[in-house]
Specification:
alpha+beta; 2 domains; five-stranded mixed beta sheet; two-stranded antiparallel ribbon; Rev_trsase/Diguanyl_cyclase; transmembrane; transmembrane helix; membrane; EC 2.7.7.65
Length: 396
């Protein structure tokens, strides 16, 4: 079997990590990508740079360019720190923003433990400590990817499993060197080192390209979310609201509990934008959206249609109950002024209420709700109006 000498193996690992660093750099080269790059990506990039420096130092030590007493402990210490940073980046990407409080002291303690083991025993104990510590930090990275297992994607699950298995291979070298100092049959120390090096190669590829694939997956998920979410109010936008409305329109054709639609429009909202500016108008919109959400159930949906106009979808809610919900919202908006940096702004809203009928389309449904809303505006504003009920045909 053809094998590479240890110095060449380490050189390949150093170059591989440098390639990953450059890949991340060029993937973030555009202004948009750089502005969207989070702290987790910065930590991950730093971890790859530290790992590349560690492998370069070990390579130079193996080639006798740098004295071994400096290259070997320094290189492995940097590698442990780099892998710890990589685990921290994955924890940060998983939403644990305070990972430094636990992981940084743990990494410092791990580096100190390795240096102590190196000074005590230059070969066996050093191999045991390096393998176990690196395997432990890679396992921490796998745990970060596996966090919230049921909600994670198949890609993230596959990466978590692969990293965990490879971490066990890395740790196994140290354990086997401890329990079998002379090797066992065909399983020599040289073969164990090659298995461990192969695991490092695969970990470099899995963690590197896995990170880039996960970043692309998150970007696609965010783009899909932006298509249906209004950025100002964090409610459904027009497209998202009509997508959620479609199945309830279909259910309305079957016998069952009614579903109501409420359309509300902020009174004199244009005056707020003109008098105070659009940033203040956005504050008003967010304030009103928060007030409305407090009156809704988890199954209800609030969406912003355009300007200061919102729509409420109330599943399994009759017209009388919908009127009560709308009245509570009207009172809440009227009784809670909006605090801004420039002024305390009092707002009111007018409401139009209707229920979905079996023969409704989106056009007829919103025409009826819009007619009720216009009636509320013409009736003095700051009121709730119900759309007229259908008139039953007279019996001849």
């Amino acid at each position: 079997m053809m094998t590479m000498d240890p110095t060449t193996m380490v050189l390949v690992l150093a170059l591989g990590n440098l390639v990953l660093c450059s890949t991340l750099f060029f993937s973030d080269a555009s202004a948009d990508a750089a502005s969207n790059r989070g702290p987790a990506a910065a930590t991950w990039g730093l971890s790859k740079q530290v790992q590349a420096a560690a492998w370069i130092l070990l390579c130079l030590g193996g080639a006798r360019v740098v004295p071994e007493p400096l290259a070997i402990p320094g290189g492995w210490a940097l590698l442990i720190g780099g892998v710890a940073l990589e685990a921290g980046a994955l924890w940060e990407a998983a939403g644990c923003l305070r990972w430094r409080r636990a992981l940084v002291p743990l990494a410092i303690a791990a580096v100190f433990a390795f240096l102590v083991s190196y000074w005590i025993d230059e070969e066996g104990l050093r191999t045991l400590a390096a393998a176990l510590l690196l395997g432990a930090f890679y396992l921490l990275a796998a745990v970060a990817l596996a966090r919230g297992w049921r909600e994670t994607s198949m890609l993230q699950r596959a990466l978590a499993i692969a990293i965990a298995l490879l971490a066990l291979v890395v740790a196994a070298r140290g354990i086997l060197v401890l329990v079998m100092p002379g090797g066992w049959r065909w399983l020599s120390h040289d073969l164990l080192r090659q298995f461990s090096t192969a695991a490092f190669y695969l970990l470099m590829l899995v963690t590197g390209f896995g990170w880039l694939l996960l970043a692309r997956e998150r970007l696609q998920r965010d783009m899909a979310r932006l298509e249906v979410i209004d950025l100002v109010t964090e409610t459904a936008n027009r497209r998202g609201f009509f997508s959620a409305l479609a199945p309830w329109m279909a259910l309305a054709r079957r016998p069952g509990s009614p579903t109501s639609l409420v359309v509300l429009d902020l009174d004199s909202f244009t005056r707020v934008n003109d008098g105070y500016g659009h940033p203040v108008g956005d504050v008003v919109l967010r304030h009103v959206a928060d007030l409305c959400r407090r009156q809704l159930r988890d199954s209800d949906l609030l969406g912003r249609l355009v300007g200061g106009e919102f729509a409420l979808l109330l599943p399994r809610t009759g017209s009388e109950e919908a009127m009560l919900v709308a009245e509570r919202m009207r009172a809440a908006i009227e009784g809670t002024p909006v605090k801004t940096e420039r002024a305390l702004i009092s707002m009111t809203a007018s409401f139009g209420v209707t229920t979905i009928r079996p023969d409704d389309s989106n056009v007829t449904l919103f025409q009826r709700a819009g007619a009720a809303l216009r009636a509320a505006k013409e009736g003095g504003r700051n009121v709730v109006r119900m759309a007229p009920r259908p008139v039953a045909p007279e019996m001849e």
